[in-house]
Request: fold
Amino acid sequence: MNTRTLVLAVVVLVVGGFAVTGVVAGGSASAGNPVGAESAVDGTSVSAAVTQQSCTGEVTMTDVTGTEVTVERSEDMDVVALQPSDAQILWEIGAQDRVVGLPVNQYTSYLDDRGDKTDVSGEGVVEKVVGAQPDLVLAANVSDPETVESLRDAGLTVYHFAGVESLDGIARNVETTGRLVGSCESAREAANEFRLTVERTRAAHANATDRPSVLYTFFGFTTGTGTHIHDAIETAGGENVAAEAGLEGYKELNDEIVIDRNPEWIVYPDDYSLPEGTPYNDTTAVQQNQTIALDYSYINQPGPRVAIPLTQLAKTWYPEELAEANRTVNASDVSTPNQTTVGTTSANGPGFGAAVAVLAVIAAALVAVCRS
Reply:
């Protein structure tokens, strides 16, 4: 196997780190609006009625596959987080005591008290999840649709999220998760705290006339429009050169974009090392030592902790303005949607789409060959 093939294989695994890693998505029932239409995923049309107005007892929501998912919520319900981003949200809303299974690997190492949970990563995922006997399985977008169907065929209740395309999608995902597990109030608080951070970073550069050009790169790929990372860069005050070049989703990065766009800043996850030589060494970013490494779990996983790299970027580019925004922008300044809409497209992750799951299997096989 040549080096290029191996790198591309590893990329798939890393972006699966968006959920293996979870590129989560979608559903958003507003915790502040428990009555009426409930949101399941980013997009348009379709809604599902909630069968009970409170945040206990039975609730029915429609996921990205068009499946009506009914859950009987209680304080002692058992939940499996199929991807790390699912787990991150559960921890952030204080529902970790209900988790009986999650991927116990490097992508969830920042979560406390995960050691006594069933590890549902690696081979035999279906058997591991079924063995945990959960009342609910949360499946972030990059989860293999076949795995979801196998779990449903085994009699388990699975909510499959859509792809997150924006920071607001993260907040709405948090609210959806809260409704599903009966933690509406804490989910609403976590979502609104996240929205406040977003509003403050946006306010920091509201009057800027010259925003820095930014390239996000990881393992030979970049991110264009329609991803939470693109939205984070733009919200923090940068101009995403990949988006300006017309790229959408996660795409392979070619040298022409680096040369033509000559980014002033290069941003990357800290589990990746910037390439050396041409054309990177010729960019303004490298020549002026303007590169930023972000925690790979926080930036890759579309969960509330995206707020940390988001703030890091804004503080780098607009430190004084961000400090002022932190003093002057309050929760009352943040718009909180009462209701969101639902899309019923197939379960695809940003950029890579449903093929991520298949590619991840291929990548794992290639890595195994290299090790043998």
Remarks:
- The chain is about 40% helix and 15% strand.
